[in-house]
Amino acid sequence: MNRVVNGNGPSDKELVELTLRGDLHAFELLVQRHQNGVFRFLYHFMGNAADAEDVTQETFITIHRKLRSHNPAQSFTSWMMTIARNSAISHHRRRAPAPLDPAMLAAAIKDLAPNPELELLAREAGDEVHAALQRLPAEIREVLIMRYLMDIPLQKVAEMLNIPEGTAKSRLFKARNALREQLDRSPGAVNAQASASPAS
Q1: pTM, to two decimals
Q2: Residue 7 phi/psi, 5° resolution?
Q3: 20 to 30 Å CA-CA from 188: which of 46, 65, 118, 162?
C-alpha cells in the first residue's frame, strides 16, 4: 500500500501516475517526500555522508528512468528501497568507502525508538561505533538498519530483501547480539555503562 508520509496531498501511487504522464512537479514531490529516508538508509548502510549523498542522487535518477517498470500493485517504497540498496552495493564495488562522519551518525540515530544497544550508539557515536557497525556482516547489518533505524516493519524488510520473514527475524536477532557484543568490547561503551550504574 502506498501511503502519504505527512497525511496530506496525493499518494505515492498518484504521484507515480502523474509523473508517467509527464508531470515533472509530481516527481519532484516524490523526491522531496522520500529523499531523507533514502539518504538515512544509505548513510547507515554505507557508513558515510558523501557516498550516501551520491547514491541517493543515483537512486532517484534510476527510479525516474525505470518508473514505467514499477508494478502499481507493489509498494513504491519497497521498490524504491530495493533500488537504493542495489545502487549502494554497485557503488561499493566501484570504489573504496570514504571515512565515516561521526557527527552525522550521532544525529541520525538520536530519534530511534528506545533500545539499549541503539541508545548507547547515540551516546557513544564515533570511530569505535563505526568500527562496531562495520564489523557486522552486511546481510545482518542491513536488516538492523531497516528495522530499527528506518522503522520498517519486519514483514516489509523481508519483502524488500526478498527473503522469508523468518529469515529476516533470524538475521535481526543475530545483528542485535553481534552489535551488543561489539559495543560491550568498546571502551566507550564500558564507560557509559559504568556511568549509568547506580552507586553501591
Answers
A1: 0.60
A2: 80, 0
A3: 46
* CA nearest to 78, candidates 17, 146, 148: 146
Indicate the residue type of 116.
Answer: P
Tracing cell 556482516 back to the chain, one arrives at: 137
**Length, in residues, of the chain:** 200
Mean pLDDT by 10-residue block, N- to C-terminus, for the chain (200 residues)? 54 94 93 92 82 93 94 89 87 60 52 52 54 79 79 82 91 86 65 43
Phi-psi region of 150 (alpha: psi -120 to 50; beta: other; left: phi over 0): alpha
Architecture of domain 102-193: Orthogonal Bundle (1.10)
| CA triple 139-97-94, angle to 5 deg | 85
Contact 143, 168 (CB under 8 A): yes
Two domains, one topology: 12-94 and 102-193: no
Domain boundaries 12-94, CATH class? mainly alpha
